[in-house]
Amino acid sequence: MSKFATILGLIIGSIILILSMIDYQQGEFISAFLNWQGLALVLGGTFAAIFINYPLQQVGCVFKGFSKVFTTEPATHDDVIEALVHLSHVSKQKGLLGVEHKIDSIDDSFFRFSLTEMLVYQDRDTLKQSLENRLINMRLRHLSCQEVYSNMASYAPAFGMMGTVMGLIIMMTTQVTGNGSPYDTGASQDMLGSLLNGMGLALVTTFYGVMFSSLLFMPIAGKLKSAV
């Protein structure tokens, strides 16, 4: 149920976010939450920092880890036991050749690898050592990918704050260099409205950073840790 839980959590979180972006008095979606420049800054900056921090081969685990938590389902103990009992009957009836024909139908990659190694290594100690090495390498890959997602969870809010600071700088600079007398009441009201509107847009990048960190990157890192 790991895959189902991941998808369900993402759906629930998305629904809550979307419902929170609606102005119920006006009955419309608040368009200020949609800012493509802020979105590009947060995601682009996060991935740029990951490319700088890690070698290219390790960066590829971002896509593999994302696919793993949303598409794969780890086998339960009952499923493995049931499969082993079935394979034992196949082995008695058809021998090891019958077991070999059943390997491709097994979904769990480690279980499939174990059966393949069993057919290659007839010695128990050699087989045990091979499976332990495989398990250690798999855990190291998961921990490495978990570290990448943990850093992405810390980079995203930082770039969100950077976008907010950049937006405030641009907003203040534009208003200072703008035309109009400060004693003009109409111009002052327009300037105040523009400042508030610009500040709201600037804060959207911080919202994006916290959203991706809390709803996506950090939970994926936790799911990869639990899969070790």
Explain what this protein looks like in three dimensions.
With 228 residues, the chain is mainly alpha-helical. Helices cover 81% and strands 2% of the residues. The chain has a two-stranded antiparallel sheet. A hairpin with a 4-residue loop joins β1 (22-23) and β2. It is elongated, with a radius of gyration of 27 Å. The two termini are 16 Å apart.
The proportion of strand residues reads under 5%
Number of helices: 9
Q: How many E strands?
A: 2
Largest sheet: 2 strands, antiparallel
Secondary structure elements and pairings:
Elements: H1 2-20, E1 22-23, E2 28-29, H2 36-53, H3 56-59, H4 61-71, H5 77-94, H6 96-102, H7 109-120, H8 124-176, H9 185-226
Antiparallel strand pairs: 1-2
Helix pairs in contact: 2-8, 2-9, 5-6, 7-8, 8-9
